[in-house]
Amino acid sequence: MFPGRWSPRAFDGAAMPETDLLTMLEAARWAPSSINLQPWRFVYGLRDTPEWARLFALVEPSNQTWVQSASALVVLVSKTMRTRSDGVEVTSRAHAFDAGAAWAMLALQARLMGYFAHAMGGITVDLVLPILGFPDNGYRPEVAIAIGHAADPAVLTDEQRLREVPNQRKPLAETVFKGMFRPE
Prior knowledge:
By secondary structure, this protein is of the alpha+beta class. The protein has a single domain, classed as NADH Oxidase (3-Layer(aba) Sandwich), CATH 3.40.109. Helices cover 33% and strands 20% of the residues. α1 crosses α4. It is globular and about 55 Å long. The mean pLDDT is 90.
């Protein structure tokens, strides 16, 4: 399952049943999280809906060229604060880590259902919170996620088409160290 998960840009633009997207978000809900805080918050829109338009406007123009053909668009925001047992509000050190785990579960569930999910940092970060109704502080935009069925890369620009292949991963020896980190 893991090598089959990658992030294409070529989507076919087909409508997605909301139940399919909710199944992916349900998988994300089951991600592990530090002290079970579950700091992820997902805001979604299906293509050709008012929600889609609001989310699409947050995507940087360079990504809009390919995101426009996705079936669903999701913005992932993490809750950065937590309340300790003594009632004091503190920064949650693991909020982004946990949100990333939720994204991974969503992406894997998408693949199990025949879809692809492509997360991107190319969003207008300073507009995400106010446009999506989040408070000014205590939340951090992480990524937007385009989801849909893969299409023929011919729908992409020449530049995008050159990048439309699964990325290879570094060998384990470059990212895993027994007992102590060894600089590259």
